[in-house]
Recover the amino acids of this structure.
């Protein structure tokens, strides 16, 4: 649940605001600008909304690749086994009513798997949109704009299982098995890492690296490989031990050349956690490399075929409701009210209603949850350690151009610019956003610490400067070439938790020390860190803890009910 934000839309001067959570000190702005805005003091002449696309008889020409065979991988099988735990668990004599705050992927996952186990989740979302960090909105032209640029990897076994369980596997558009990087020293050119389909892991990844001679020289590759040897030999214990070092510190310690940082790690760090290598924990990089190199299709990417709320979140909601669960929007948690013994009495909503249950889950982002922690819990170590976990700011930019850009791919692209992380031409990569005549670039602006408070015009100016380098023949900063029809900017001051060194010991287990209270979210303890996969896995682990605690929770609920029924002496 990406709460704590205010969304505003500026359309040719008019402003309209919608309340989000109103709980974080920072605010999140989603802004829309049409073609009457000024960029570098240039006022565009084409006024009004961009022409509507015809939505009938949609013809898609983007080339998708077959879904990779993931079912035989160890991680996929383990994820499937965890899913079967809920379907095969003993049906409860009296289902638990579990109140869950936050309908992001973590909350949706928790509710889905509790419903699979025969319990009744009541999922509460503060905003009027599903998805949390994968939320999206439709503008007055019918175009969607999203919180972030979301990629589904082959190394996301719980998400891949979830798509299969919902029967929506065909909604993932798989791309060729490559990683494509822009070349800053050669504007308009790209360098590729192509993973051969005929080779097993990790040989296919090693082959992709060895075949690329544009980004790293052979001596640099050798030194990089030597630096990684301890991780290959030491396995998971070594990876976990690197949480105390930043990427930059680890490189210096291992004697890895600085150019590896410039050519590879800056792009990886910004794509993984929206921060630079001098801040990111090396553990994060090693976990990603392990997933991508140890599984043949681990780094293979897919785009969702449309907007996440409708194409991913609603099928989960339908599944939950079909099994007796509830999902309520515009239901903001104001306070966690406690019993005299310190357990949860109910969730108090901002509209004055009180929601009670047999168990309670907070699946909000860590920054929101920290504001909701009752004073009575604040000195408990489990909750106190959360202070080190802080969300990282990120800005997502969408720009609609008046023409089809040619210097792009049907794929995710690593910009390797100082201001941008990754980007994609969504008019090519995504079926719902397909447009044969105009490009829509979606770009992640990161790191965003210094930009989150700046104006939209400043952000667009800076983005256009970077795009002029990526598209030297097609985009100019003064818009003398491709012209902007409109743009959306979505600012998230607190996104995924910032994976800086020594955060790992602060990540909480899903089962809290408070009986009947649980947490879900990518910041909680699970092996996929801050990601969509991590959010879904955290929800499964949270649901598993509740199912395992069924007898205790049912007994506690029965005692509470009996105490309420005891007559008061006259």
């Amino acid at each position: 649940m990406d709460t704590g934000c205010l969304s505003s839309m500026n359309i040719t001067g008019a402003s309209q605001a919608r309340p989000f959570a109103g709980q974080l000190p920072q605010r999140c702005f989603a802004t829309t600008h049409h073609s009457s805005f000024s960029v570098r003091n240039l006022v565009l002449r084409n006024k009004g909304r961009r022409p509507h696309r015809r939505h009938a008889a949609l013809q898609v020409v983007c080339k998708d690749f077959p879904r990779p065979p993931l079912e035989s991988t160890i991680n996929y099988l383990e994820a499937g086994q965890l899913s079967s735990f809920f379907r095969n668990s003993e049906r409860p004599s009296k289902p638990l009513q579990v109140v869950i705050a936050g309908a992001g992927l973590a909350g949706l996952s928790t509710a889905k798997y509790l419903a699979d186990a025969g319990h009744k989740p009541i999922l509460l979302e503060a905003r009027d949109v599903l998805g949390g960090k994968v939320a999206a909105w439709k503008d007055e032209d019918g175009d969607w704009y999203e919180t972030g640029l979301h990629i589904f990897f082959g190394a996301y076994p719980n998400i891949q299982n979830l798509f299969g369980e919902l029967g929506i596997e065909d909604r993932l558009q798989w791309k060729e098995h490559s990683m494509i990087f822009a070349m800053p020293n050669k504007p308009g050119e790209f360098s590729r890492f192509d993973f051969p389909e005929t080779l097993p892991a990790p040989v296919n990844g090693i082959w992709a690296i060895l075949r690329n001679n544009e980004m790293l020289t052979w001596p640099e590759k050798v030194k990089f490989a030597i630096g990684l040897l301890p991780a290959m030999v030491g396995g998971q214990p070594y990876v976990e031990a690197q949480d105390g070092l930043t990427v930059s510190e680890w490189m210096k310690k291992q004697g890895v050349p600085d150019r590896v940082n410039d050519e590879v790690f800056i792009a990886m760090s910004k794509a993984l956690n929206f921060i630079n290598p001098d801040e990111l924990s090396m553990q994060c990089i090693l976990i990603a490399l392990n997933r991508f190199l140890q599984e043949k299709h681990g780094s293979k990417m897919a785009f969702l075929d449309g907007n996440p709320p409708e194409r991913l979140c609603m099928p989960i909601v339908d599944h939950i409701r079909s099994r007796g669960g509830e999902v309520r929007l515009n239901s903001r948690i104001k306070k966690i009210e406690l019993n005299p013994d310190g357990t949860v009495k109910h969730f108090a909503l901002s509209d004055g209603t009180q929601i009670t249950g047999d168990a309670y889950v907070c699946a909000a982002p860590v920054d929101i949850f920290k504001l909701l922690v009752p004073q009575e819990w604040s000195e408990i170590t489990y909750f106190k350690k959360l202070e080190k976990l802080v969300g990282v700011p990120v800005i997502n930019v969408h720009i609609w151009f008046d023409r089809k850009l040619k210097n792009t791919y049907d794929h995710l692209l690593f910009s390797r610019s100082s201001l941008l992380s990754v980007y994609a031409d969504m008019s090519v990569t995504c079926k719902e956003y397909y447009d044969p005549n105009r490009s829509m670039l979606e770009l992640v602006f990161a790191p965003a610490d210094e930009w989150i408070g700046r104006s939209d015009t400043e952000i667009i100016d800076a983005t256009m400067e970077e795009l002029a380098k990526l598209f030297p023949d097609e985009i100019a900063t003064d818009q003398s070439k491709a012209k902007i029809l409109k743009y959306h900017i979505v600012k998230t001051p607190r996104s995924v938790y910032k994976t800086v060194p020594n955060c790992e010991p602060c990540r909480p287990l899903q089962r809290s020390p408070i009986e009947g209270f649980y947490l879900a979210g990518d910041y909680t303890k699970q092996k996929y860190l801050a990601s969509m996969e991590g959010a879904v896995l955290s929800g499964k682990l949270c649901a598993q803890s509740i199912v395992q605690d069924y007898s205790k929770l049912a007994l506690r609920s029965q005692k509470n009910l009996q105490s309420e029924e005891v007559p008061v002496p006259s």
Remarks:
- The domain at 136-195+300-306+391-497 is CATH 3.90.660.20 (Polyamine Oxidase; Chain A, domain 2).
- DSSP finds 15 helices and 25 strands in the chain.
- The first strand starts at residue 6 and ends at 11.
- Residues 218-241 form the longest helix (24 residues).
